[in-house]
Each structure stands twice: as structure tokens, then as C-alpha cells.
Amino acid sequence: MWFTVRKSNAMKTQSVIEMRSDTGQCMISHQQESAALGTQPSISMDSTQGEQTRLVCRSEGWSPVPEVIWRDRGGNDVTSLSNTTVQSNSQGLDDVSSYIKIKQQSNVFSCLVRSKTPKLDGEYKLHISRLLLLLLLLLLLLLLLLLISPLCCTGDMTLDPDTAHPLLILSVDGKQVRRGETRQDLPDNPEKFDYRSCVVGREGFTSGRHYWQVQVGEDTDWRLGVIRKSAQRKGGFSLAPKLGYWTLKWYGDEFFAGTALETLLPESLKPQKLGLYLDYEERQLSFYNVETKSHIYTFTDMVFNTNEELYPFFYTWDNNIDLVLECPVTNPNPNPNPDPVSAGD
């Protein structure tokens, strides 16, 4: 008895029951290993090794073992200088940890974690009836209409005029905002900003993963990110994480992450369109340059109360350019970009 096993198909014999001396019958079980994409990678600094500080990149829940690539500020591959370990977790998936030693003056590194799952190389033949072909064409047309429709989002995101500073001018559809020349006479309420020209999204998030984009264009003074519901809104104060603000800031010709002591970012990372990716359960907020599909910065260990609402946050002091909110996505793929997620320090 002979069995032919193709290269891309793993098969094993479960049992063979002899019926006659010259004929056999068997059951074949096809086992196909399913691929699993891990969590968004995170980078932390470890200085417990003595003489030299190191950056540690971690990601969990992969199958099969992913590829880890390190790059320096100039985009050069420095993976050969790193050390990577893999451990299986209780779910039978792989957790990867990789570290690279750095000098004190080094300031920007990125860690890319991506799947190494190959494409299947088997041959497939598909026989489609005319009726089925017609149905497929109709489905494709429907999908195309959904892609080009302005109502492409099931969870539509708009700006909340009740929170907007009186100087801000919002569009009728709640998708655009800019600073006006004169202060509007509007009723005050506890949610409204009265000192900084800020506004937040109408709907807050209490769970899940969320991704949205903001067209910043040539706006010369903006801050974008997320705030918690309990964050201060009245008076002048620092837009810092300890007060419930996690933001990126562009002012003049300088780019900052709104950490406790603002972190200066390379000007080359400044986007025309900014992507924001919030993972509520992981308490992480990541920023991406949509055009270049590159990672800019990630806030980790965000501090907020259990089930506390988090709101998209917008600030602008430019009265010539609108900030434009684009179609959001609820519970997106952990990697909102086609390219592998890259996490920086």
C-alpha cells in the first residue's frame, strides 16, 4: 500500500483496518498548523545588567516562532547585535523576547516582529458555475461600494461640540476643526475646555481595540492623542500622562511625545496623516505615519480606572488649516498597517 504526501500537506495514518488479504481501508487525518499573530511588540529599558544598558522587545502569542528585526535610527539592520529567546506559554503559543545593548547616547531604535509563515505551495483547481460566478461578481461590486462609500464605518466617530473650546470652529459633520479668530459666546459646562483650544470625541471607549486617522497637513501647532474621562479640562495645566493625557505634539518645526519631560522626536517622523491605535485592555496607545506605514511612538502602562472611558483628543492653534478626522475602525487587526508593527523606545 502506498500513500503520496505533498510537500505542503502534513498527513498521518490514524488506523488501518484489514478487510481482505489483498485490500486495506484506512482513515487519514489532515493536521494543519494554524498561524497566530502575537501581541503588539513593546520595548522597555533594562539597566540591571551592570555596565551597559539594554533595550528589551517583547511580544506574546505567536505561532510559529516569529522573526525579530532590530533597526537603528538610520534604518540600518542591527539584528546581529541582538539576542532573542523564545518560550512556550500555557496556550501552546510562543512568547518572544529580544534584547540589544545600547550606549547611553543612543536614542532611537526600532524592533520589528513579523510572522515567518510561508505561503502554501500546493496547486488548487476551482470549478465555478455561472450562477456562482454571478454571485461572486455581485459580492465584489458590493464590497467596492462599501469601500468608496463615505459611510464605510459602522462605528462613526465625531467631535463633541459640548467639549470644544469657544475659539474652535467645528464642521457641521463633526469631522473637522480649526481655531477661529474670535471667541464664541457658548454656555459653559464641566466637560468644556476653557483655557486650551481642545476638543474630544463624542464617544468614549471602555474596551477593545480602536484605530482612527487624522489628517494634519500643514497645521503648525497641534496635539493629538487620548485622554481619560477624569482628566482635568479647566484652566492651564500640563498635558502629561500623570494628568490623563497621552499625546503627540507638533509645534513650529519640532516634534514631541507628550511624556512627563517631553521627548523630542526626529522631525523626519512628522506625518501628514497620523494613525492612532488604542488597545484598551493592554493600556497602550501607538502612533503611526500613515503615508510611510511607519511607527512613531507608543505609550505603555496607561493609568486609568477600570472601565473608565477614554476619548480621542484634539488640540490646534492654527486658524488656517483644519484637523480632519477620518474613518475609524473598532477592534481592528492588532497590526493596523500592512507592514509588520514596529515598536520604538
TrEMBL record:
Residues annotated as domain Ig-like: 49-121
Alphabetized SMART domains for the sequence: PRY, SPRY
Residue ranges of every copy of the B30.2/SPRY domain listed in the record: 137-333
Gene Ontology CC entries for this record: membrane
SUPFAM superfamilies linked: Concanavalin A-like lectins/glucanases, Immunoglobulin
Subcellular location: Membrane
Domain of life of the source: Eukaryota
This protein's UniProt keywords: Immunoglobulin domain, Membrane, Signal, Transmembrane, Transmembrane helix
Annotated membrane topology: Single-pass type I membrane protein
Protein's UniProt keywords contain Amino-acid biosynthesis: no
CDD domains: SPRY_PRY_C-I_1
Ranges that cross the membrane: 131-151
Protein name: Butyrophilin subfamily 1 member A1
Organism: Acipenser ruthenus (Sterlet sturgeon)
Organismal lineage: Eukaryota, Metazoa, Chordata, Craniata, Vertebrata
